[in-house]
Design a protein that fits this description.
alpha+beta, 8-stranded mixed beta sheet, 30% strand
Length: 629
C-alpha cells in the first residue's frame, strides 16, 4: 500500500513539474501554485479533483423606514465549512461602515454623507452570545472578525445577528435618491469568502473595488409602508397578497407576454387606483433566491413598472423596468434589457440566461447585482442603451461565475465591456463602443498608469483602474476572438462557453481562464496572456521599409511594443483602388520582432500604405504610414 502511494505521488509530481515547465513563461504567484499542488485547481483549466468552496444560508427580516432612512434587520445564518481547514475565526463584512467618519475610502466624502455605519444590536454564534467589547471581537473598517472559533471541516455554524444602519445620502452603488426612492445593496452583515487561494478575504471595502461572495441561499422578508413597491433579487413569493388585484393580473400577464406590459402605469397613480395591499399600514414582501452571490432591492412609492418575457432556450425570463415617469429614456429600458438577455442567451456567449428574472431599477449611476441593475437613465438614449446592456451582461460575469472582483476586476468588467460592444451596436449604432473602448485604452497605453490587469484591483484607482479593468482587457478579448475565429470558426465562442460552464457557481481565477482557453484551443497561449495581462507593456507596430519590385510589394512591419496585435495594411493605388493585407495577432507568437508581408500589385501603382485600423490599438501612429515618392 505504501509503495502504491509513493508511485501515485511520483506520477502526480511528474505531471506537475511538466506543467510548470511548460507554463514557466506565464507568471504565477506562489499562492496559485499551492492551489495546483493541493489539487483544488487543474492545469487544464478545470476545477481540481479536490476543489471546494463554502456557502451560507441567509434568513433575513428587514424593516425599511423611509422617513428616517433607517434599515433595521435580523438574520439567521447557517455557514457551511466545506474546506479541509479548521477555521479559528469568522470574518463578517459590514459594508455600510464605509459611511463612518475616519474610514478609508477611494474618493472624497462630504460630511453630510456620514452615518454611524452598521450598529450591531446582538450577535450569537452557535447559541452563545458574543459581547462586542470582548477581546475576541475585532472591528476593522468594513470587517468584523470574531476570533476564538473552531469550525471543523464539514461542520456548520449558526450565526444570529441583529443590526441597523442609516441609509446614506451618498449614492455610490446604493443609497437614498430622494425621500421615496432607495436602492439597497452592500447592506446586510455578510460572511466573507474563505477560499483555496487566500483563505479569508479580509480586503477592506473602500468603494472602488467591488464584490466577492460565495453562492448562497436567501429567504428575505422586507417590511415597508403599504404605499411602497419593492423590486428585488429572487422570486416574489407572495405577489397575490401584496399586489392589488388589477396589478397582480397585469404582473401575471407580463410573465407570459413577449410584448411589454405596463404592470404599473402612470394612470394607476393619477386615478388613485389601488396598487398594493392597503389593509395594513405596512406590507411584508417575501423573496427567495437559491445559489446566488448576493441579494439587493429597490423601493419606491411612485415608480412605474414594465415587464415582458424572453425565452433563453431553456426557460422564460421575466425582464422588468421600474422607473420614474419623468425619465423618458426609461420607457424603452425593458425592451433594451430584453434584447440583451436574448442576444447573450443565443449568440455571445450563447448560454441560457443565469436567472429567472432581471429588473432594471431607476436609481443612480450604473451598478449590477444578481437579477438587479441600479442605473440612472440619463437624457441620451445611447447612454441608456450602453449602461443597460453593460450591467445586464454582468449576470454572467461575476454572478454566474463567482469572480473575485476585488482582485481581478478585469475578469468581469473587461468581459462585460467587450460583450456589450456587440449587443449595444445591434440595438443602437449612434456610437461604436468597440472603437471608443480602443481609444479609451490608448489614452493610457504605454504610460506610467498603464498597469497590468493582474495588478490586484483594490490597489488601483482612477484612470489606471479604468484602463486595467475595462479597456485593456476588452481589447485583449477582442484580439483573442479575432485570432480564434479566424483560424477555426466558432472556437472562441466554444472556449468561452466551456470556461463559463466549468466555473458556473464556482470561483475562477485568472489561470483558470488562461488554461481553459489553452485546453480548448490545444495551443500554448502564454505568448499572448503574459504580456497582455501580466506585464507593463503597450501595443505599437510600425512600417519599417517598403520594397516594390517585379509587380510585388514587400512591407517590413516592426513590433516595437510588447503587446501582440493584428497586422492590417491598407494599400491605396493611384487609380483609387484599395487592397488589404490582414494577419491575426498569432503572427507574433514565435517572439518575432518584425515580419515581411508580400502582395501582388497586378499592375497597380502604390500611392499610400496605412498600417492599422480603428479596432487595433497602437500607441504611436506616427510611424503607421508610407507615402510613395
Amino acid at each position: 500500500m505504501k509503495l502504491k502511494k509513493i508511485a501515485y505521488s511520483f506520477i502526480f509530481y511528474f505531471f506537475l513539474f511538466a506543467f510548470y515547465s511548460a507554463a514557466q513563461s506565464l507568471y504565477m504567484p506562489l499562492e496559485f501554485r499551492n492551489a495546483y499542488e493541493e489539487g483544488t485547481r487543474s492545469p487544464d483549466g478545470k476545477p481540481g479533483a479536490d476543489y471546494w468552496q463554502n456557502k451560507s444560508v441567509y434568513n433575513i427580516d428587514a424593516t425599511i423606514i423611509p422617513s428616517t432612512r433607517m434599515v433595521k434587520g435580523s438574520e439567521n445564518i447557517v455557514y457551511f465549512n466545506n474546506s479541509p481547514d479548521t477555521l479559528d475565526r469568522i470574518v463578517i463584512r459590514l459594508y455600510q461602515n464605509i459611511n463612518r467618519p475616519g474610514i478609508a475610502r477611494d474618493f472624497a466624502y462630504d460630511d453630510k454623507y456620514f452615518t454611524k455605519g452598521v450598529e450591531i444590536k446582538s450577535l450569537n454564534i452557535n447559541n452563545k452570545e458574543v459581547n462586542m467589547s470582548d477581546t475576541i471581537v475585532e472591528e476593522s473598517g468594513t470587517n468584523l472578525i470574531i476570533k476564538g472559533q473552531s469550525i471543523k471541516p464539514d461542520e456548520k455554524t449558526k450565526i444570529n445577528i441583529g443590526w441597523e444602519f442609516e441609509i446614506s445620502k451618498n449614492t455610490i452603488r446604493m443609497g437614498a435618491y430622494d425621500t421615496a426612492v432607495f436602492f439597497i445593496a452592500y447592506w446586510y452583515p455578510q460572511i466573507a469568502v474563505y477560499d483555496d487561494i487566500d483563505g479569508w478575504d479580509v480586503v477592506q471595502y473602500t468603494g472602488n473595488a467591488e464584490f466577492y461572495n460565495d453562492f448562497n441561499d436567501y429567504d428575505v422578508n422586507i417590511t415597508v409602508p403599504n404605499d411602497f413597491g419593492i423590486w428585488a433579487t429572487g422570486e416574489l413569493m407572495n405577489p397575490a397578497q401584496i399586489l392589488a388585484s388589477p396589478v397582480y393580473l397585469r404582473y401575471q400577464k407580463a410573465r407570459e407576454s413577449i410584448s411589454v406590459i405596463n404592470i404599473i402605469s402612470a394612470s394607476d397613480y393619477t386615478e388613485n387606483n389601488p396598487i398594493f395591499n392597503d389593509n395594513n399600514k405596512t406590507n411584508t414582501w417575501h423573496f427567495k433566491a437559491e445559489g446566488v452571490p448576493d441579494f439587493t432591492f429597490g423601493l419606491s412609492d411612485h415608480y412605474l413598472w414594465d415587464g415582458k418575457i424572453v425565452n433563453d432556450g431553456e426557460k422564460n425570463v421575466l425582464v422588468s423596468a421600474a422607473y420614474d415617469a419623468g425619465w423618458l429614456q426609461f420607457y424603452d429600458v425593458c425592451n433594451v434589457a430584453a434584447r440583451t438577455v436574448d442576444m447573450m442567451s443565443h449568440q455571445l456567449p450563447g448560454l441560457p440566461f443565469p436567472f429567472p428574472k432581471i429588473t432594471v431599477f431607476d436609481g443612480g449611476g450604473g451598478m449590477e447585482s444578481p437579477m438587479m441593475v441600479n442605473q440612472a437613465a440619463g437624457n441620451e438614449r445611447i447612454w441608456m442603451v450602453y449602461v443597460t446592456v453593460h450591467e445586464v451582461a454582468h449576470s454572467y460575469f461575476p454572478f454566474y461565475m463567482g469572480i473575485n472582483e476585488r482582485k481581478y476586476a478585469w475578469m468581469d468588467e473587461g468581459w462585460a465591456q467587450m460583450l456589450s460592444e456587440y449587443i449595444q451596436f445591434d440595438i443602437d449604432t449612434a456610437i461604436d463602443f468597440r472603437q471608443r473602448n480602443v481609444k479609451r485604452y490608448l489614452d493610457l497605453a504605454g504610460q506610467f498608469e498603464d498597469v497590468p490587469p493582474m495588478t490586484p484591483s483594490y490597489m488601483v484607482s482612477g484612470a489606471a483602474y479604468g484602463s486595467a479593468s475595462y479597456f485593456r482587457p476588452a481589447a485583449a478579448y477582442n484580439i483573442l476572438m479575432d485570432m480564434f475565429n479566424n483560424k477555426t470558426s466558432g472556437l472562441f465562442n466554444a472556449a468561452l462557453r466551456e470556461y463559463i460552464s466549468r466555473w458556473h457557481g464556482k470561483h475562477p481565477t485568472p489561470y483558470d481562464f488562461f488554461f481553459t482557453f489553452e485546453d480548448m484551443s490545444s495551443q500554448d497561449l502564454d505568448w499572448f496572456f503574459q504580456p497582455w495581462f501580466c506585464e507593463a507593456a503597450y501595443p505599437d507596430l510600425a512600417i519599417d521599409s517598403v520594397n516594390i519590385q517585379n509587380d510585388k510589394i514587400r512591407i517590413l512591419v516592426d513590433k516595437i511594443g510588447e503587446l501582440p496585435v493584428p497586422v492590417s495594411i491598407e494599400i491605396n493605388a493611384s487609380d483609387g483602388s484599395v487592397m488589404n493585407i490582414y494577419k491575426t495577432a498569432d503572427v507574433w507568437k514565435n517572439d518575432a520582432g518584425e515580419m515581411w508581408l508580400e502582395e501582388n500589385l497586378n499592375g497597380k501603382n502604390v500611392k499610400l500604405l496605412t498600417l492599422g485600423n480603428k479596432y487595433i490599438p497602437d500607441a504611436d501612429k506616427t510611424n503607421n504610414e508610407w507615402i510613395a515618392k
